[in-house]
Amino acid sequence: MTTLRIGYGAMRLTGPGHWGDYPDREAGITLLRQVVDAGVTLIDTADVYGPHTNEILIREALHPYPEHLLIATKGGFVRSGPELSTIAALGHRQYLRQSAKLSARRLGVERIGLYYLHSGYARDASFEEQVGTLAELRAEGVIRDIGLSNVTLGQLRAAQEIVEISAVTAHYNVVDRHEQPLLDAAAEAGAVFVPWQPVSLSTPGEPTDTAGPAAIRGVLEPIAARHGATVSQVALAWLLDRSPAVLPIPGTTSLAHVRENLAAQDLVLSPSEISAITGL
């Protein structure tokens, strides 16, 4: 399936702390429909968002899905309360099988287009066993393509020995590039690299911050001004220039921001502007 180079991360369409239902259900449904109408062809979710409420909202808004729309979801995390400390990684074969099949049910599909192992941190099963479970689900037709989230370069290499990996998602943006080797390996293998929090100018674990420190603004703001663009658009354009494999998934609850993000695909930065940002 061909997708645009910028997708939509739906995680924010949940309750506070990503727990429970999105407070304004009708607004969430409207936004998701507008996201697709604006041209987005990839929507990213996970069973732990809510938990479950995000997948259900996507189904209510968009099912039956347009043929061009890819819904990506993830499994491998469990959450027992509103506190983030209640999130844990599980990789047991039966748990992952249940997670994938219940995600398919919630999304209203017989086969999930792209299914990620949400974490490489689980200790109740080896990483190789977890990837093997996803390969098994693929062979059974429960999922079509397999992705990896929050994994190391070594884990990506190990997974590729077991089954084809179609996508890798990781925290990667202008100020956080420690996953560059993962991007390079994904691109080399023909997989899509999906940065999350792509317009944030903060480090992993921090809330999204599109302003960033003064040193970052001092480089990005003049570039944005020259193009009549926003800093977020410049950050996305820089990401898209990094590799043809890059497909960011910015998340927002604003249609204006969705359109702004998509417009970044048409922003062409000069080599000197790219170099200035890369040199930060």
Automatic annotation (TrEMBL):
**Which InterPro entries is this protein grouped with?**
AKR (IPR020471), Aldo-Keto_reductase (IPR050791), NAD(P)_OxRdtase_dom_sf (IPR036812), NADP_OxRdtase_dom (IPR023210)
Q: What name does this protein carry?
A: Aldo/keto reductase
Pfam families (UniProt xref): Aldo_ket_red
**SUPFAM superfamilies under this entry?**
NAD(P)-linked oxidoreductase
* Statement: the UniProt record of this protein carries the keyword Oxidoreductase: yes
Domain named NADP-dependent oxidoreductase: residues:
5-278
Note the PANTHER family from the entry: AFLATOXIN B1 ALDEHYDE REDUCTASE, ALDO-KETO REDUCTASE YAKC [NADP(+)]
Alphabetically list the UniProt keywords: Oxidoreductase
